[in-house]
Write a structure and sequence with these properties.
By secondary structure, this protein is mainly β. The protein has a single domain, classed as Beta Barrel (Maltoporin, Chain A). It is globular and about 70 Å long.
Length: 430
């Protein structure tokens, strides 16, 4: 029954968009798909520390994923008033099982990622601003190299975007999350962006509050934080080495300590639950032949989902463009996770470490004005080598466990603390 409902939703969406005569439909999307194996036999294995929220993704993605976005102008008049509609469906599959990828297969899902309407040009709105209501990707800041959305409050809500305030702009929104125990979490979000500080450099700042509106009938923690703040300050430098640089500081407390988008909040967290992090993210293109990305993250968490950890990661993805249609990509990444106490480390406070390196010869279309780092589509072959220590093995990396037994372990790599994977992948956005 659940499968039929998803197919009905998909069919109704496509039919409604095709039938509408208001205007043409703009179609955008993203997908990645691939095949792979490992040096011990069997399918591709992806390497990620169990205590980390991200992984270095080049040659290290085991799922097939696609997004289809349909945008349409529903109404527009001569005065400039315009109503727009945006809907996005996503599909994910963990298997490459045949020529018919049924939703009945385990791990195959369709999800509604966006579904919102915006109004622009209304005479009583600030010039250039837009009012919107629905489910939306909202001012997402991400690091492509590790597929990590570090400043993202996307979800069900409504607000006012791109309100001019001098040389900068601001956005106001309120999001709602309905928990399984009938409580509602309200999340007002306020941010200012585009504040000029130096040539080609701007400042962004924002605050989100998670407000728990539980009533007396809901069983909840007695020491929970009813209003939990999440603060972000970010410096964006454009035209930097042919690309850009972002440096961000974030701090969260209580239910906002994990600093995630809607539905991922840590409900009932106390004021003792905190996290802060520093993010350095760069994309560079100093010459037409050389491009790449660089990332560094340091995080310090206290009682986040019961774990208190210090984590840091550093990585680089350089690429050498040999001609318009071929480049060699390399990626090296290191992740370190240190539990602050025995409970957080499962009885082990030793630092976990994971190193991963990938080489990927890549076919591509000719690079555009923005450089080759984000040029898509690409067709790539890859080989990935990863190595980890005893503490990572004990934490469960690559399906392993503490006191690993080669005769009984289900890990593809037995009790080895290194592994090699290989494969091919296509990635595109359009």
């Amino acid at each position: 029954m659940r499968i039929k409902k998803k197919l009905i939703v998909l069919g109704a969406t496509l039919f409604a968009l095709a039938a509408s005569q208001a205007s043409a439909v703009d179609f955008h999307g993203y997908f990645r798909s691939g095949i792979g194996g490992n040096n011990k036999g069997g399918s591709q294995v992806c390497f990620q520390d169990p205590g980390s929220e991200y992984k270095f993704r080049l040659g290290n993605e085991c799922e097939n994923y696609a997004e289809w976005e349909f945008s349409q102008c529903l109404y527009k008049d001569k005065s400039g008033v315009e109503f727009v509609y945006d809907r996005m469906l996503a599909y994910i599959s963990g298997l490459a099982g045949g020529d018919f990828d049924s939703l009945k297969n385990a791990g195959n899902e369709i999800a509604l990622r966006q579904n919102w309407v915006g109004a622009k040009g209304l005479p009583f709105l600030p010039s250039g601003s837009m009012a919107w209501i629905g489910k939306r990707y909202y001012h997402r800041n991400d690091i492509h190299q590790i597929d990590y959305f570090y400043w993202d409050t996307s979800g069900f809500g409504g607000g006012l975007d791109d309100v001019p305030i001098g040389p900068a702009k601001m956005a106001l929104a309120v999001f709602e999350t309905r928990a399984s125990d009938r409580r509602v979490l309200w999340q007002p979000d306020f941010r200012v962006y585009g504040i000029p500080i130096i040539p080609n450099g701007t400042l962004e700042a924002g605050v989100s509050l998670i407000i728990d509106s539980a009533n007396a009938n809901v069983v909840q923690s007695t020491n929970k934080e009813s209003v939990s703040p999440w603060l972000t300050v970010q410096w964006v430098q454009n035209d930097f080495l042919g690309g850009f640089n972002k440096l961000a500081f974030q701090w969260g407390q209580g239910s906002a300590a994990n600093m995630h988008s809607q539905g991922s909040q840590q409900i009932d967290a106390s004021s003792d639950t905190r996290q802060w992090r520093i993010i350095e993210h760069m994309v560079y293109q100093p010459t037409s032949e050389i491009s790449g990305g660089l990332v560094f993250i340091y995080q310090d968490t206290k009682q986040l989902f019961g774990s208190s950890l210090k984590r840091w990661s550093a990585g680089i993805r350089p690429a050498l463009q040999l001609n318009d249609y071929f480049k060699i990509e390399l990626e090296g990444g290191y992740t370190s996770v240190t539990p602050k106490d025995n409970a957080s480390g499962g009885g082990n406070t030793n630092t976990r470490s994971l190193f991963k390196a990938t080489v990927a010869p890549t076919l591509m279309i000719a690079p555009g004005p923005g450089g080759s780092y984000f040029t898509r589509p690409v067709l790539r072959l890859f080989g990935t080598l990863a190595a980890w220590n005893d503490a990572s093995q004990g934490a469960g990396i690559a399906g392993q466990s503490a006191a690993c037994n080669a005769a009984t372990t289900t890990s593809a790599f037995g009790c080895d603390k290194a592994g090699f994977t290989f494969g091919a992948q296509v990635e595109a956005w359009y």
